[in-house]
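To whoever is on call:

I kicked off a structure prediction for a single chain this morning and the downstream step that reads the tokens threw a length-mismatch warning. I double-checked the sequence; it's 575 residues and nothing unusual in it as far as I can see. Pasting both halves so you can look.
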Amino acid sequence: MSETVSPAGAPPAMNHRQVLEALSGLILGMFVSMLASTVVSSSLPVIIHDLDGDQAAFTWVITATLLTTAISTPIWGKLADLFNRKFLYQLAIVVFVLATAGAGFSQNPEMLITFRAVQGIGAGGLAALSQVIMADILSPRERGKYMGLFGAVMAVATVGGPLLGGVLTDAWSWRWNFYVALPVAIIALILVQKTLRLSPHARRKVSIDYTGIVLLSAAVSLLLIWVSIAGTATGFPWNSWQSYLMVGGAALATVVFIIVELRSKEPLVPLSMFRNRTFTLAVVASISTGIAMFGASVFLSQYMQLARGATPTQAGLMTIPMIGGLLVASVLIGWLVSKYGHWKPYLILGGALLIAGSYLLSTIHYDTDFVLVSLFMFLLGAGVGMTMQNLVLIVQNTCKPSEIGVASSGVTFFRSLGGTVGVAVMGAALAAKVTDLMKEHMPDLVKAIMSLGDKAPYWQAQLASGALPKVSDMPHALSTIIEDIYAQGISHSFLIGVPFAVVSLLAILFLPNVSLTRMTNDERLHAGEADLATVSVEEGMSVLTATGSIGVVDEVDAAAATSGPAGDAPGSSGR
């Protein structure tokens, strides 16, 4: 079996066993990140209920994490091009897990939202750095099957997380959802330290775009706050001076951010990368993937508990079909991409499945046959599995080796940003729809409450509080109405993702079908340095020829050839 030959100066190519050893800590770190994120998904309705939070609090617990993940991802990507990537990855694990543990001590929704925001900073690092480190040690062609392995691990965490969270919540307390990741994180840190060996990169002067960070944070935060509060009973009307102020502020911050990025020496998001057609179209496609991925994980758990009366444990089991689709698609497609080198047909199929899954989930009711709901979830999960990792892969395949960090994190950033805005918009649409339906069904609700006898005041107070209801504890007469209301609201919110999925498929169709290289990022870097050296020598020779100094060089060459090893013909210097 022939070995892969690396360019001169590049580290020797690793075999399969060495790659798996190097990736073991990386994979476990991603598992910790995914587990800590998904373990609360099935129990979040119970958590918000116990902390007396409403639908807006529920949405902000999710969007706070997504927002800081989105904003911090390009920052971590930039740092990856400047500092030791192994240390940065370990730092991201520490930040993520400490914030996760702190969330377990939350006493109110505001405290939980704050810790979740810090958690997102660590999550951004893990998401960005794992892609960058993989690019250092694996070629795009080989990366497909290992990304399939990452997808499998993510799927296990995504399947096991909600189920584990439901069991912990039902058996003990939802607070254990946040503590369970600590021992796994310690093992991940040790594994990363022992198994991950990266080639040192040339150090260069550090310049962080702090102004860009502030402006981007302000623009996205203003937009999300506006979407979450406008049009609600406790907020302000859509057509009001507060709305104009927030939207205008977000627009102004965005314009100034673009100006700053164009002038910055080390921009947070290098706008010059948008000249690369692959990067631009991958970003557009990633936004829709983020909406589908995060929106489904957030609102499907609500659907299971608020529209079908499931407990947290049951909700974790009921979302397995979607994770099954993601698992099968990510592993199978990753293997096919590595084996045959073709990626575009799978991305097109994934985009079509995103449209189908989003639309079909917008048609569900509280009494829809669960076999159909499972099929719809599977289609959406398969669409996410086919598109999510491959969009990063094709960008890494075409970008400059020196920009691998910022390019990878750029796609991840826009995917997280799409998910953040998508979840906020879907949550706002859900809250508005539920409010309207509550008013519409008020006579039925009053009739159901009055039939409860001495328990009527308790349930009347529960509904009047505005907190998320715990449908599994409700009397049947009342739960049926509430399930119908939330089912209509959640299906309405899924419809929002359909046009974005259509745009994603169009972007995928226009992606240039560039073949995947078999060189790792380190090999591409050293190959580029070798090419530069060759060009420099050739330019130098041209200068000597032009100045008449070539005769001296010829004499030196001849002398070297004459005194060379036996068998070398004089003058055969190979020049």
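Update from on-call: the warning came from a stale cache, not from the record. Cleared it. Sanity check on the structure: The chain has a mean pLDDT of 74.
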